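Escalation from tier 1.

The customer reports that the assembly of two entities below gives different structure tokens on two consecutive runs. Tier 1 could not reproduce it. I'm attaching the input and our single run for tier 2 to review.
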Amino acid sequence: MAIVDIRNRVDLQMKEHSGLFYIYMKVDFSKTNIATANDYRIARIADGWLFLGSFFRMPTDSTSTGTIDIGTTQSGTDLDSAIDVDAGSQTSWTAMTPTYASPVEVAADGYMYLEANSAAVNDGVLEMMFVVMAAPNEDSAVG
Amino acid sequence: MTTYKYFDGSIKDNPKSQTAYATPGDNNQIFVRRGHVDTTKQSLTAATPDIAQVIPLAINEIVLGVWVRVDTVESTSNAEFSIGFDAVNNQFLDSIPCTTANTTASEFTETVHVANNSSHITLVPSNSVDLDTGVIEVCALISKSFDSDGDVPSPGYAQPLS
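Tier 1 run:
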């Protein structure tokens, strides 16, 4: 699938504390549509970082009946897969369900991705929050 | 080490105050909070069921992992318990047998990380067996989130995009 870089449309905020990075991202699908034909880069992170905790919520759900994947690989499935985007408004954070036992190591290309599985997502707001530990001797850039 | 009080036992019954611990301290960004449920002091009824508030959580805290172990066994065969957030239907670790004691930390049962929008990590009896003879220890790895006044970041932490 083609890769589409939407990092400049993602609200990303980060706080560092004692080697731990707290990353918050928000994607407004009404402004940034997600099609099934592409994989969408939402952030650049560092190879080797460890995800200690991954959470999401959709304060505004979508009218799409599809699901999305979130991950550090282009397929976007290692942090969570098949998140239902029309499950209703969720103001509470929900833990993602990683493919592997936590912590999840970031894949080699150093990007985070969103992927629409079964239908385009053209509205709704997705928020994500990650607790990440920086691995030694790695690039610490995030963006 | 920070020592604080928490309520052990049923939410609806008279709670018994016990001591729980956090290390290296609640003022740190990430810490471990640990508590015990002594069912000899506050029995937990399975039929209702009673909900024991084991570890308190602040609004800006997120739970990265939870471990449990049985310090003292329940005498009733097939006794089990579940761990969750606040309400009985919000469990993330189900049906843990408590008729065999675990004596070392390595025998804690790890769960996947869980998010907090709740006031407590709770423990409830399961498998229709009342808990009244055992002692169960619960240990949680907790991190503060972005701000002290909520669980979402506030302006000021934004980073430039590359």
